[in-house]
Sequence to fold (188 residues):
Amino acid sequence: MMARVVALGMLLLMVVGVLTVPGVASADDRGPDGQQIAPGPPPPARYEAPPAGPGPSYVWVPGHWQYAGGWVWVPGEWVIAPYPGAVWVPGHWVRRRRGWVWIEGQWRGGAPGYVVVASPPPPLRVEVRGVAPFVGAVWIAGFWRWTGASWVWVPGHWARAPWPRAVWVPGHWARQAGGWIWIEGYWR
Fold:
């Protein structure tokens, strides 16, 4: 009987010890809402001087640290705002009970919604992808964007998936009553 009590006590201590070890996380560790969890705070943000923007519809999205078994810097990039007046609110790391959690950036402000374009977009361009610049890079294909007066080609680019095994669902133009509307791409 005493051996059972001792064995049960040791088992209980092992379980409590495993559950209370601080800073234990992996690159695939996710919170209940699918957010990535890192074992410690990210390094200080790197200074980036944005290069000249490619056009008036572009917004600079600054770089940030991503945790993938170790800290990896994801450089900033120019992206096309999804709607007029959109402002990018950068993502950030926050300390939570299980570790450091990445809160995704998001678009805010302006007048979200969609624009109906009377003429169809031109045919998609064939793009040369080249070699992926890092392990796990995902190709985000180029697309046609309506500027309000003409179609402008937005070239494709390599991106880092926001979480392991994330899949990019590309945006596309869909025919609706009265014209064409843009259906935004997203990660799933």
The two ends are 53 Å apart (CA to CA). Residues 5-9, 11-28 have pLDDT under 50 and may be disordered. Residues 24 and 39 are 6 Å apart (CA to CA). The chain has two domains: 23-110, 114-188.
